[in-house]
Amino acid sequence: MLSILGGLLLVAGAAFLVLAGLGLVRMPDVLNRIQAGTKATTLGTLLTLGGFACLRPDWALKLLLIALFILLTNPLSSQVLAHAAHRAGARQTPLANRVDRLAEDRGDAS
Fold it and tell me: Is the pTM above the cut of 0.90?
């Protein structure tokens, strides 16, 4: 039973990782690509690690530590990338919301 659950988690994780790759190609601007890449890869990686933990219970502690590391670093790295893209003046899609809170906080907004 645990091997079936592990296989299902691996398939679900792989599906989210494929969707993350598709999101990186399909999204119109840098900030949307960061969003698609971070959220989908985090979930896909966690599901994959959960699948491996079901298949190899003796590795569960190591996989849990890897999952915690990913949960702590992925959101932080995406925030840093978004701030860097904003500071560099990355092009945004015309459909994006025109309220720029980062520029208001820095005093750049008119």
Answer: no
- Helix 2-26 / helix 30-55 crossing angle, nearest 10 deg: 170
Q: Please tell me the predicted confidence (pLDDT) of residue 30.
A: 85
DSSP per position, 23-54: HHHH-SSHHHHHHHHHHHHHHHHHHHHHHHHH
CA dist list (Å): 78 to 21, 56, 83, 102: 15, 31, 9, 15
Cα–Cα–Cα angle for 17, 93, 30, rounded to 5 degrees: 40
Q: How far is CA 47 from CA 1, 13, 73, 92, 97, in A?
A: 17, 5, 17, 31, 32
Does 48 score more than 60 pLDDT? yes
Give the pLDDT confidence score for residue 89 in this predicted structure.
80
**Mean pLDDT along residues 28-47:** 89
Report the C-alpha gap between 56 and 71 in whole angstroms.
21
Domain ranges of the chain: 2-106
